């Protein structure tokens, strides 16, 4: 191609095609370069018959090509026809290997040796040619694939889909759709939510799971791939299941080497980072523009709008506003000050540290699902115990955290650029403190799903959130007037580690010198006596361990392993010792904690000869409790059968407090020795029941109670997900009359009973629609749990696991 063109467009995906079609419509000299023999290779590779969505629905399409939701085949046919009718200059089977030159005179060389000259270059090459690979032993086996063309080709296979983005969900549903194919399909989600998938896809996947068409395995990752088998790590330990085929849809990364050879800089060194771009899509190499998925915009409608816009910019139309402009103008209209949309976006992106790693195009998409809000000095942003899991970034001003509910004047400041609300994001608990604007303040409020998506797609955002949460956990744990500067060395050297259930973190006798904080999950501490592990203690989230070997310089005195799937923060012992040297009060606290732990070790050692049976029995009791959910509980009901007289007052009191429906079954459950764990909610630290609640009806209260609100739709997902069988589906009885009406006039049922008419309908199966019923720890009822208050002998107790699992119980076991 000897003539110099105004623009060369590389890649014929939705963005590149739209750019080429608009260039053709303007009469601009151009070429659309495609390395395959067909248009839009990414859409072409979608599975056959796939329904392609046209989201977001509120975004206007700005393109010379048509696009609406429909089947893959119909959309490709439409584009093929319109590209031909529009006389787009297309060069097929031309893979670009090199771009040299500068703005006004670029030379684009193909693999065949052809050279194309153009004043401007538009890169619309996407990221699909560079998929992320599985990272586990066996990841090179031939039955692992990263693409699914036609689900109908697979029959009677056990198939694992890795990844719950849109591609993974659609692949799983396609393979499980036809019962005649008899495929056994499981889809793995490393978390419990679906932040990168469209809402419609998630709802359809959950419906297929509920119908038994496929299995969703949440909080699950691959550990080992073997011919015909796969080993998975779950929150409850490892499992090995049959597997004939693995389809990994875990995203893709930009083709960094090629892009950087063009002189284009990226936002960070991370493999998944995107190029630095201006609001007009121009890269750090003037004259080279980047659009589409390579720019961080994966949605088809966004990509097509960018293709149209970039040609307008190249043609000189610098006044053009993006198609999402009206939506963003509406979001910013109530903020103080006169700024344009671009100025607001840059103001927020530049001032909030977790947003620094996004380019302006990603920032626009991000703000479509987030909000910017202004608060006057003294105005409450949220209150202690309020529900909420959104994250806030401070773009201007500062906030004050009221740390003492009895004295609002005691506050901790959070400065501009930082974040707050991360505890609700990580744990799902209600707000732990009231936060007010310390001065006139502007914040970005990021929904939970948007925050999870931000962390998965912008590596620097995850790093910043991790750093801030680690710093605050250290300050909260050690206290004593520490400042962020005091712990900066520890924070910089920290490493967050996922620990599967049962895996050892610290081993007795080892010489390593690290210290750990439990970020989520729980740990069991054991000591080897006579070749047998003996339980010492239980460590819940927020605890720290490993300091004894660090301070003494001796070998580890006990083994610490994960009771459930957990997450720990590891710090080097040298940095911790340096902190102790600078802060003697921290050393005093650590030595006090060590003294208590040494007493436990000495106690067990002194009993191992004369009371070996008692030690062994206690260890077995502790393991029994962990096996029955205490390892992830925050509150559990236990019954001492030596004291229990079988009066059932606990059940009756529970029913009387909850519309006649008891939340516990005293006789059900398992027993070890004289200790009984009845069927009642454990109020898990990270509840299984919350994993896929469509209306988000399950919440955690201020005291750790997990409860179900009135928005429950009775889908039964929580009942199926609970491993302890403590949730049941039941119809809620009508409201009971007052106690006075019952006592004086005999109106309605008595205490602990539902009405006769309701019970009759229930027995006939004609009662009202069912909802999920579970223990809520008598939330809102004065005096605490009714089951405990009603027990006449003190047999029923509600305890946190660390209170029960202490070596002091050894004397009782003896």
TrEMBL record:
CDD domains: CAP_ED (cd00038), DMSOR_beta_like (cd16367). Residues 635-667, 704-732, 769-802 form the 4Fe-4S ferredoxin-type domain. Keywords: 4Fe-4S, Electron transport, Iron, Iron-sulfur, Metal-binding, Transport. GO terms for molecular function: 4 iron, 4 sulfur cluster binding; metal ion binding. Coiled coil: none annotated. Residues 354-448, 478-597 form the Cyclic nucleotide-binding domain. Gene3D superfamilies: 3.30.70.20, FAD/NAD(P)-binding domain (3.50.50.60), Jelly Rolls (2.60.120.10). The keyword Iron applies. It comes from the Bacteria. This is Cyclic nucleotide-binding domain-containing protein.
């Amino acid at each position: 191609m000897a003539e110099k063109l105004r623009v060369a467009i590389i890649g014929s995906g939705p963005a590149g095609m739209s750019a080429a079609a608009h260039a053709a419509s303007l009469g601009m000299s151009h070429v659309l370069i495609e390395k395959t023999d067909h248009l839009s290779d990414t859409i072409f590779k979608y599975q056959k018959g796939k329904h392609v969505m046209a989201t977001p629905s509120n975004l206007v399409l700005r393109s010379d090509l048509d696009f609406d939701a429909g089947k893959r085949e119909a959309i490709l046919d439409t584009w093929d026809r319109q590209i031909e009718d529009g006389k787009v200059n297309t060069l097929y089977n031309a893979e670009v290997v090199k771009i040299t030159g500068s703005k006004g005179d670029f030379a684009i060389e193909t693999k065949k040796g052809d050279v194309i000259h153009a004043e401007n270059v538009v890169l619309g090459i996407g990221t699909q040619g560079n998929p992320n690979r599985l990272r586990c032993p066996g990841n090179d086996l031939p039955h692992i694939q990263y693409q699914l063309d036609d689900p109908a080709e697979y029959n009677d296979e056990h198939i694992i889909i890795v990844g719950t983005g849109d591609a993974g969900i659609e692949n799983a549903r396609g393979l499980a759709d036809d019962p005649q194919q008899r495929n056994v399909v499981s889809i793995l989600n490393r978390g419990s939510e679906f932040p990168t998938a469209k809402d419609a896809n998630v709802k359809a996947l959950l419906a297929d799971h509920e119908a038994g068409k496929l299995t969703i395995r949440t909080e699950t990752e691959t550990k080992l791939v073997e011919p015909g088998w796969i080993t998975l790590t779950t929150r409850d330990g490892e499992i090995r299941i049959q597997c004939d085929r693995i389809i990994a849809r875990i995203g893709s990364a930009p083709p960094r080497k090629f892009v950087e050879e063009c002189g284009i800089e990226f936002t960070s060194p991370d493999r998944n980072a995107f190029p630095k771009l201006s609001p007009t899509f121009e890269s750090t190499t003037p004259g080279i523009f980047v659009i589409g998925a390579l720019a961080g915009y994966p949605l088809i409608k966004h990509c097509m709008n960018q293709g149209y816009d970039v040609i307008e910019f190249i043609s000189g139309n610098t006044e053009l506003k993006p198609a999402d402009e009206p939506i963003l103008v509406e979001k910013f209209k109530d903020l103080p000050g006169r700024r344009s949309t671009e100025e607001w976006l840059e103001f927020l992106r530049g001032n909030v540290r977790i947003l620094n790693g996004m380019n302006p195009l990603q920032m626009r998409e991000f703000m479509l699902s987030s909000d910017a809000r202004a608060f006057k000095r003294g105005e409450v942003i949220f209150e202690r115990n309020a529900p909420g899991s959104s994250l806030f970034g401070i773009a201007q001003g500062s906030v004050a955290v009221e740390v003492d509910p009895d004295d609002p004047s005691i506050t901790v400041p959070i400065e501009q650029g930082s974040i707050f609300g991360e505890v609700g994001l990580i744990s799902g608990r209600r707000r732990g403190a009231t936060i007010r604007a310390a001065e006139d303040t502007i914040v970005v409020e990021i929904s939970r799903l948007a925050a999870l998506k931000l962390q998965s797609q912008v590596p620097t955002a995850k790093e910043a959130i991790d750093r801030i949460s680690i710093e605050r956990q250290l300050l909260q744990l050690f206290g004593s007037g520490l400042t962020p500067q005091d712990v900066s060395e520890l924070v910089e050297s920290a490493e967050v580690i996922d620990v599967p259930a049962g895996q050892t973190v610290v081993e007795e006798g080892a010489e390593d010198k690290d210290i750990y904080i439990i970020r989520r999950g729980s740990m069991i501490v054991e000591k080897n006596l006579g070749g047998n592990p003996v339980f010492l203690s239980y460590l819940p989230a927020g605890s720290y361990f490993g300091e004894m070997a660090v301070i003494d310089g001796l070998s580890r005195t006990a083994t610490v392993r994960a009771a459930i799937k957990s997450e720990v923060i590891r710090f080097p012992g040298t940095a911790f010792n340096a902190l102790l040297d600078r802060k003697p009060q921290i050393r005093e606290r650590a030595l006090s904690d060590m003294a208590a732990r040494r007493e436990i070790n000495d106690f067990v050692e002194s009993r191992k000869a004369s009371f070996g049976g008692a030690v062994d029995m206690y260890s077995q009791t502790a393991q029994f409790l962990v096996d029955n959910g205490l390892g992830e509980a925050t509150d559990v009901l236990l019954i001492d059968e030596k004291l229990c007289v079988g009066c059932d007052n606990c059940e009756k009191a529970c029913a009387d407090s909850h519309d006649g429906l008891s939340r516990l079954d005293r006789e059900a459950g398992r027993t070890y020795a004289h200790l009984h764990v009845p069927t009642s909610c454990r109020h898990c630290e990270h509840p299984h029941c919350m994993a896929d609640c469509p209306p988000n009806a399950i919440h955690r209260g201020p005291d750790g109670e997990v409860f179900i609100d009135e928005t429950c739709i009775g889908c039964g997902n929580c009942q199926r997900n609970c491993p302890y069988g403590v949730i049941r589906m039941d119809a809620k009885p009508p409201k009971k009359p007052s106690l006075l009406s019952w006592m004086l006039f005999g109106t309605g049922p008595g205490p602990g009973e539902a009405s006769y008419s309701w019970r009759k309908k229930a027995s006939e199966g004609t009662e009202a629609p069912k909802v999920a019923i579970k223990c809520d720890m008598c939330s809102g009822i004065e005096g605490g749990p009714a089951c405990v208050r009603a027990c006449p002998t003190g047999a029923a107790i509600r305890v946190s696991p660390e209170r029960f699992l202490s070596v002091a119980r050894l004397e009782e076991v003896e």
